[in-house]
């Protein structure tokens, strides 16, 4: 059972250890910012278009960040539903339609998770296909970073929207992106050296002497905020600045008393969302999002969490009573945990098939219920459609997050911003954040996600072919559902060829479904299933 007192005590101990250790806390703060490259562009674009309620989005996404960190104990992100966001921006959808699409996805995921449909899907989905979804999603982020964020910039300067030719145009350019990328490469090299040194020191039962890892995402974010403040101040001082656009309808009047600026839920209820549930545009957006949520936000995220947080390194995140640590860690455990960075996953992690869908740190059923609760509870307040995701998990892990502390701190920050700063000023500040820095953060997240997917493909050469077919189709069609179908078709073609050629036993040597062969055998005890040769 997932929700137990014993598990909660272990997760609280895990989070507190990373919060109370100064150098681990720095890594957690840096990791909490690793997913901003995905969150900020969509949040800003949808807010400026009027397709979401920005204060409600900050409030609810912050609350869900906090709850996710307390329940799961890993840096599982709370991020926008990308397919719905893209369709809303492309079709200029209003707030009610956008939020209604997210509510439909939440309802569908609730049915799949509550009825056990996801377990049935996992039983027959090859691990190579899910790895292909991870690689495709990672490479899609890299393409988005280069084509959508960095490529439109000038090499040395980028003209401001208001035509200002002063200092502001020098604070966002491809040259800055190159410098930020160089810092990212150096940081990744440092992390690799720390991992190698840490493994050697642990083999000798000594503490690692490598210096603390630089919290690169934190540094990049702080520099970006300084640049944004300068650009905003220059835009206000420029005589060519256009008059401010009218604030969104949910903002408070500027002449009201200070205490009325605190977020009031009664002023942010959108009853039209319920009427928009029957809008064909909302249904179409939800259908496009559902495969991405099922594959990337649930199946791939659960698999990635098991890869990044294996039981040998993070026993406190698993439902193994023998791994239940005491509330006061032993000296040896404290010594090993206090090394910097935290103990990385093994280069040869436990195969995914050896962990069932409900044994990992992020089981399928609680994960699906979390996504459905986020969207169904926040929809009446105009909150942006939310989900978890493997890309954000990889990004936050890449930049140092190793516990739920990172997203709890991020959630507190978002909650306080939404509670006390519901006006348009925050949106204007975030809109001036350099796209050069956002692009580098997105690129780092995409590379990390793809790296984990490639590294953990088990089985024969045909499994790697299935992974490449899935990832390549996702990149070509920009659709996870199409990539999934292509991967399953490739996998089925290999199995049919093996069956027709009399190599049925050899064909079973490849990678099994994500629940693993052992669990399938347990499911088959006492009953006879009529299996298609495609699924053998």
From TrEMBL:
<keyword id="KW-1133">Transmembrane helix</keyword>
<feature type="compositionally biased region" description="Acidic residues">
    <location>
        <begin position="516"/>
        <end position="536"/>
    </location>
</feature>
<feature type="region of interest" description="Disordered">
    <location>
        <begin position="503"/>
        <end position="536"/>
    </location>
</feature>
<feature type="transmembrane region" description="Helical">
    <location>
        <begin position="210"/>
        <end position="234"/>
    </location>
</feature>
<keyword id="KW-0812">Transmembrane</keyword>
<dbReference type="Pfam" id="PF16983">
    <property type="entry name" value="MFS_MOT1"/>
</dbReference>
<dbReference type="InterPro" id="IPR031563">
    <property type="entry name" value="MOT1/MOT2"/>
</dbReference>
<feature type="region of interest" description="Disordered">
    <location>
        <begin position="315"/>
        <end position="360"/>
    </location>
</feature>
<feature type="transmembrane region" description="Helical">
    <location>
        <begin position="58"/>
        <end position="78"/>
    </location>
</feature>
<feature type="compositionally biased region" description="Low complexity">
    <location>
        <begin position="330"/>
        <end position="340"/>
    </location>
</feature>
<feature type="transmembrane region" description="Helical">
    <location>
        <begin position="98"/>
        <end position="116"/>
    </location>
</feature>
<keyword id="KW-0472">Membrane</keyword>
<protein>
    <recommendedName>
        <fullName>Sulfate transporter</fullName>
    </recommendedName>
</protein>
<dbReference type="GO" id="GO:0015098">
    <property type="term" value="F:molybdate ion transmembrane transporter activity"/>
</dbReference>
<feature type="transmembrane region" description="Helical">
    <location>
        <begin position="170"/>
        <end position="189"/>
    </location>
</feature>
<feature type="transmembrane region" description="Helical">
    <location>
        <begin position="128"/>
        <end position="150"/>
    </location>
</feature>
């Amino acid at each position: 059972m997932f929700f137990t007192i014993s598990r909660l005590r272990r997760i609280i101990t895990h989070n507190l250890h990373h919060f109370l250790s100064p150098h681990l806390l720095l890594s957690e703060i840096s990791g909490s910012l690793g997913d901003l490259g995905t969150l900020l562009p969509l949040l800003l674009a949808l807010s400026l278009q009027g397709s979401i309620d920005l204060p409600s989005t900050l409030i609810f996404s912050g609350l869900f960040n906090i709850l996710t960190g307390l329940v799961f104990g890993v840096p599982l992100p709370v991020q926008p539903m990308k397919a719905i966001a893209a369709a809303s921006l492309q079709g200029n959808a209003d707030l009610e339609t956008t939020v209604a699409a997210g509510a439909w996805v939440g309802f569908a995921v609730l049915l799949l998770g509550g009825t056990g449909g996801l377990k049935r899907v996992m039983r027959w989905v090859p691990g190579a296909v899910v790895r292909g979804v991870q690689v495709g999603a990672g490479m899609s982020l890299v393409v988005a970073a280069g084509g959508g964020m960095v490529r439109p910039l000038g090499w040395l300067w980028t003209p401001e929207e208001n035509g200002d030719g002063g200092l502001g145009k020098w604070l966002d350019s491809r040259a800055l992106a190159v410098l930020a990328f160089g810092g990212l490469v150096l940081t990744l090299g440092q992390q690799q050296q720390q991992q190698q040194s840490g493994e050697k020191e642990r083999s000798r039962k000594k503490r690692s002497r490598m210096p603390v890892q630089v919290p690169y995402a934190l540094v990049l974010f702080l520099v970006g905020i300084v640049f944004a403040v300068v650009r905003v101040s220059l835009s206000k001082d420029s005589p060519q600045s256009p008059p401010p656009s009218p604030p969104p309808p949910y903002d408070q009047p500027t002449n009201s008393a200070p205490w009325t600026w605190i977020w009031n839920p009664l002023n942010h209820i959108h009853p039209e969302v319920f009427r928009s549930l029957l809008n064909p545009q909302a249904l179409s957006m939800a259908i496009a999002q559902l495969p991405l949520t099922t594959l990337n936000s649930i199946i791939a995220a659960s698999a990635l969490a098991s890869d990044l947080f294996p039981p040998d390194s993070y026993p406190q995140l698993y439902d193994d009573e023998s791994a239940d640590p005491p509330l006061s860690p032993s000296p040896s455990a404290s010594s090993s945990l206090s090394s910097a960075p935290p103990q990385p996953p093994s280069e040869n992690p436990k195969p995914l098939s050896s962990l069932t869908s409900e044994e990992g740190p992020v089981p399928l059923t609680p994960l699906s219920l979390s996504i459905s609760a986020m969207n169904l509870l926040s929809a009446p307040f105009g909150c942006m459609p939310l989900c978890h995701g493997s890309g954000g998990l990889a990004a936050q892990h890449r930049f140092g997050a190793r516990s739920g502390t990172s997203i709890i701190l991020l959630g507190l920050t978002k909650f306080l911003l939404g509670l006390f700063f519901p006006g348009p000023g925050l949106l204007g500040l975030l809109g001036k954040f350099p796209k050069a820095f956002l692009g580098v953060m997105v690129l780092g997240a995409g590379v990390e996600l793809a790296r984990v997917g490639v590294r953990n493909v088990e089985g024969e050469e045909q499994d790697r072919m299935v992974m490449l077919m899935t990832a390549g189709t996702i990149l070509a069609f920009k659709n996870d559902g199409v990539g999934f179908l292509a991967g399953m078709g490739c996998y089925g073609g290999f199995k049919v060829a093996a069956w027709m050629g009399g190599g049925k036993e050899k064909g079973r040597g490849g990678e099994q479904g994500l629940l693993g062969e052992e669990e399938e055998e347990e499911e088959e005890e006492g009953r006879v299933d009529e299996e298609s040769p495609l699924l053998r």
